[in-house]
Structure formats: C-alpha cells, structure tokens
Amino acid sequence: MTLPRSQLIDRENGGWHHVVSRCVRRAWLCGKDADSGVDFSHRKGWLEERLLTLSEVFTVRVYGYAMMSNHCHLALEYRPRDALALTDGEVARRWPSVFPPGRAEHLETAVAALLSDPERLAVLRARLADLSWFMRCLNEHVARRANREDDCTGRFWEGRFHSSKPLRDLKAVHACMTYVDLNPLRAGATSGVAEAGERTSARRRVEESRREAGKLEEALAPMRLDAGAGRVFTAPPTSLEVRLSTYLEHLDWTARSGLERRAGRNPAALGAPAGMDDPEGFLRLVRRYDRRWGRREGRGDVPPAGRERRPAGTGEAAAGC
C-alpha cells in the first residue's frame, strides 16, 4: 500500500531519497516512439537541465540521475534546514528564477515586492525547503514544454513522483546511486559504464574526469550545471567521502556482477573490489531497488513486446505533484 508523503519525507530534517517519475502509461515520451518513429530523446536534455537548474534554487543536492525514455530516476540529498540560512534577499531572488516575471526588466520590481512582504517571503522560504515543490517545478516545466511542442493538452507524467523512505545510511546511498547510474546498462541502451546513457550522472562524472586531471581522486560531489558553457560539472560542498575513482570501480564491478549472474555464473568469481567490506550485501541492496522498480518501470529504452504505448503527441499540462 502506498504510504502518505508525510511518512516518506521528513520535512524538518530531510535525508537521502531515491525518487522516480514515470511517463503516463509508460509511453516512450522521452525516447523514440516505436510506432510513429518520432524521436523525443531531446526531452531527456530538458529534464537534466531543469533538474540541475532547480538544485541551485531549492535546498536539494543532486548526486545521481538517469533520464530514461519512459521514466527518470534521481538520487537526492534533501536538506530543508539549509533554507534557514538563506537571507531574505536570496529567497526573493531565487523564487523569480523559477517563475520569472513576464519581462526581464520586471525582475527587480518582483524582487523588491517580495522583500517588502515578509509573510510572502516566509511562504517562499518554506517552498524552497520542500521536496514536493522541487519535483513539481521539475515535472510541470517539462510537461508544459512537451505539450507546447506537441500542440496538445493532457497528461505527460503518470501522477505524483514516487519516493523511497529516507535511505538509512551511506551504504544505502551508495547502492541507490549505483542502481540509478546503471539503469541504461540494464535497459540495454549502453554497453558499458564509461559509455553510460547520455543523460546520466555517471556519464557526466566520467566526462569531467577526462577533462580535469585529479578529479578521480576527489570525493563525490553534487552535480551542477554551467549554463554558459553548456556542460555539467561537480562541485562541493559534499556529504560523501568516497572518491570518484572508487565509485566508478564499484560501478563497473556491480555491472559485471549483474552480467555474470544473468549468465548463470557466480559473480563471486570476480573477487571483491577494493574498499568494499561486504560485496554480496551491497549487491543485495542494489537488487532490492531492481525488484522494487524494475517491474514497475519496464526497461526504459527497450520497449517490451506487446506493451500498450500511448500514441506520440500527447502530454500533460500539470505534473500531478
């Protein structure tokens, strides 16, 4: 039975969450429609850009994501207490960046109006510390943009986003990030970790490590967007201590272990990766995510035979959050 959101999300203390949003009827509205041949893969870029833009506004850090053809997975650190440290000026400028006024020259007027209204500022500060508002601003933006592109109305997302309970420790966070980053590999959309799906945090981390010497030895940091340069990067502060090189080694080992298991072989023959105390326990944690979400999401970039697909050109005006 689905739990109330109040039992899943601690709005006072926050925590780490695995979050999933599904396209309506699991249609391939962010990939290539098998029936019409129309390719909507560019919408994965919309999701990635909006996600990382919002992470600079809300008190949410993005550590992992995988944009699939019919759903997306996110690994988030929700930090509502950070909103208490925001000045009134920061709140007044952050909110219009999400819902900008009609004209750019009206921005300063909007900011001034907010600064003169303490009650409204208090409401907006609470929203910036709300994971549901974060997801609403992500999903609704993409839904409306897709509707404009398709010149239609209707639902794009199946409903409200799905969230795990707060992940209990950093080992669970590690397993969650691994599961998220390996989604394209399980879907058959890529052949290896280094070539992870185009819109995944793993792909972006690998790209950054190739651009910057020494990045592999740094701790895993949240994903950020350099809009001017049009690229994704990582930057502190971070709540994780594991190095990028270690994480990528564990990611590759987990992927190979999964291939061994599906081939009917014992993955223990691969040996334990450095820095992992309980390899089998870690694999069980990753498989637990697959059991929970795998059947519900389908294989995002590989439409299962016979599954009903919604025709291309139907979207959603509201995200249902």
* Distance, first to last CA: 19 Å
Mean residue pLDDT: 85
Give the proportion of residues in helices. 40-55%
* Main sheet: strands, sense, barrel: 4 strands, antiparallel
**What low-confidence regions span 5 or more consecutive residues with pLDDT below 50?**
303-321
Question: What is the radius of gyration?
Answer: 20 Å
Order of helices and strands: HEHEEHHHHEHHHEEHH
The largest sheet has its strands arranged as 2-3-1-4
Structural class given helices, strands, pairing?
alpha+beta
Helix count, DSSP H or I runs of 4 or more residues: 11
Based on DSSP secondary structure assignment, what is the total number of beta strands? 6
Coarse shape: globular
| Beta fraction | 5-15%
Quick recap of the structure?
The protein is of the alpha+beta class and 321 residues long.
Structure, explained:
- The chain is of the alpha+beta class and 321 residues long.
- The chain has eleven helices and six strands.
- Strands 2-3-1-4 form a four-stranded antiparallel sheet, with helices on both faces. Strands 5-6 form a two-stranded antiparallel sheet.
- A hairpin with a 3-residue loop joins β2 and β3 (71-78).
- α2 (42-55) runs antiparallel to α6, α3 crosses α4 (107-115) and α3 (88-98) crosses α5.
- It is globular, with a radius of gyration of 20 Å.
List keywords for this structure.
alpha+beta; four-stranded antiparallel sheet; two-stranded antiparallel ribbon; 6 strands; 42% helix; disordered C terminus
